[in-house]
Amino acid sequence: MALWILSFCIMAVEAWGSIYFFDTFLKKKSIGQWGKCRYVVLYFASMVVALFGGYFDLMGIKAMLIILVFIAFCAVFYEADWKQCIFFSMLNYSLLFLIDLFSLQIENIFMLSKGISHLILPVKKVVWFCLLFMLRRIWKGQNNYGELSRKEWLKFFMIPLLTVASMLLMFFCNSAEAKVQTAYLFLSVGLIFINILVIELLQGILEKEELFRESALAGQKKESQLAHYRDMQAVYERQGRKMHDYKNQIRTMQVLLKKGDTQAAAALAERLTESISVEMAAVNTNHPVVDAVLNQKFHAAREQGVSMTFRVGDMGGLRFNEEETVILLSNLLDNAIHECVKVVRQGKKAVIHVKLVQEGGKLIFSVRNPVTEKVEVIEGAGLLNVKAVADKYGGDFAVSCDEEKFRAVVML
User: Fold this and answer.
1) How far is Cα 111 from Cα 50, in angstroms, rounded to an integer?
2) Is the model's pLDDT at 348 over the cut of 80?
3) What whole-number distance in Å separates Cα of residue 371 and Cα of residue 98?
4) pLDDT tens across 33-53, in order?
5) Burial 196-212 (b: 16+ CB within 10 A, else e)
6) Residue 114 has pLDDT above 70, yes or no
7) pTM of the predicted protein model
8) CB distance 299 to 343 below 8 Å
9) Is residue 93 within 8 Å of 128, Cβ to Cβ?
């Protein structure tokens, strides 16, 4: 009876330690009250596996069942895909089993009695907890596993997989010879350190990927800033040319008025007024940076024979800084203009539809334009910049394309 109670206590400790391990490497899901029940769920699932595995009395089946329980637990309670669930489930079980195997070799080498062996059980779990605390200190919260490719995940899988296979082999091929027991002891210690090194290696790769991504985005932001300044310079140059034309037309009106030809002067004044209206007030959103970018892109598109329609709202309370605003608007509009120029060259009409409104407390920016053929959506510098802004504010960014049109939508 005492042994049963001890076993249930050990399973409770292992369930708590496993959750502590998964919390270190994975992000918990927001699932309300169910999140508070995860300890109970894992404890009873482990108990069922222990009873079911005891029925078969095969260590290999027990190991497979508990790993499957860990995988299902991670999939339900953590924001992780199947690769992460499998990897960290196998890694957790490997460390847990290795500590037990290490203790077993100690018992065999020193030929400890069963009574003393039962007393060592709590000590084993204390050692395991110390290992978990050490891993928590080592890990720096680099949980952006999306940076790893499938090939890299397959390489990482090999370590816990070979660890589990080695542990089962040592368990089934257990020998009473002192030399074999000593060899197994050192092999267990070596496997523990190898698994810790895998975690160190994983963290190093994630840190390098993050630094590389930040460096790339910083370079892309600088390019966007330069593009913005070039755009503003083009606006000023165009306005300078227009002002020169306006002065000439005003002088012409003065000459016509002096000659008494008021009808021709009035017609010229009307055309001039319409020209100024189109040039200076194509878009008005109550935000100077947004107006500057949209108007500049409007005129740049018009010079290429591309039309642009707008559905815009009041952007006076826009929360982005100037750089982010330029990145968000310029990249998608530049892509649209680039594709529409191809359509115009084929003798077709090209219209870019722009929507920039605030609905339901969210900013919606969408760009829709025709294409000459289906464009393969590739995360180039421009799209990566837009995605970075969307991610920063917890928004969504989606693009789609078929044989007729390309559409990009940002919701923040």
Assistant:
1) 26
2) yes
3) 59
4) 777 788 888 888 888 877 766
5) bebbeebbeebeebeee
6) no
7) 0.56
8) no
9) no
Pairing assessment for the beta strands 405-411 and 362-370 based on DSSP bridges = antiparallel
Element of type H or E holding 409? strand 405-411
Distance CA 99, CA 195 (A): 12
Torsion of CA 196, 198, 202, 205, to 10 degrees: 120
Task: Look at residue 231 in the predicted model and tell me its pLDDT.
Answer: 60
Instruction: Report the sign of the C-alpha dihedral through residues 194, 59, 21, 134, in that order.
Output: negative
DSSP H helices, 260-315, are 262-280, 288-303
Specify the higher pLDDT residue, 125 or 272.
125
Of 313, 327, 333, 335, nearest to 393 by C-alpha is 327
| DSSP character at residue 361 | T
Helix, strand and coil content of the chain, in percent to the nearest 5, comes to: 75, 10, 15
**What pLDDT score was predicted for residue 234?**
63
pLDDT of the residue at 351? 93
Structure tokens at 229: 């300044």
Please indicate whether residue 360 or residue 356 has the higher confidence score (pLDDT): 356
Tell me which DSSP letter residue 26 carries.
S
Q: How confident is the model at residue 353, as a pLDDT? A: 94
Distance CA 291, CA 313 (A): 11
Distance (Å, whole) CA 301 – CA 336: 9
Q: Report whether 359 contacts 339 (CB < 8 A).
A: no
For residue 95, which of 137, 127, 47, 54 has the smallest C-alpha distance?
A: 127
Burial of 405 (0-12, 13-18, 19+ CB in 10 A): middle
Task: Indicate the DSSP class of residue 79.
Answer: S
- pLDDT category of residue 368 using cuts at 50, 70 and 90: very high
CA 412 – CA 397 distance, rounded (Å): 9
**CA-to-CA distance for 85 and 402, rounded, in angstroms?**
35
Residue 393 neighbours by CB distance under 10 Å: 12
- DSSP letters along 313-330, please? ---TT--S-HHHHHHHHH
Report the C-alpha gap between 247 and 156 in whole angstroms.
71
pLDDT in tens, 86-107: 888 888 888 888 887 777 777 6
Look up residue 34 and give its DSSP letter. Answer: G
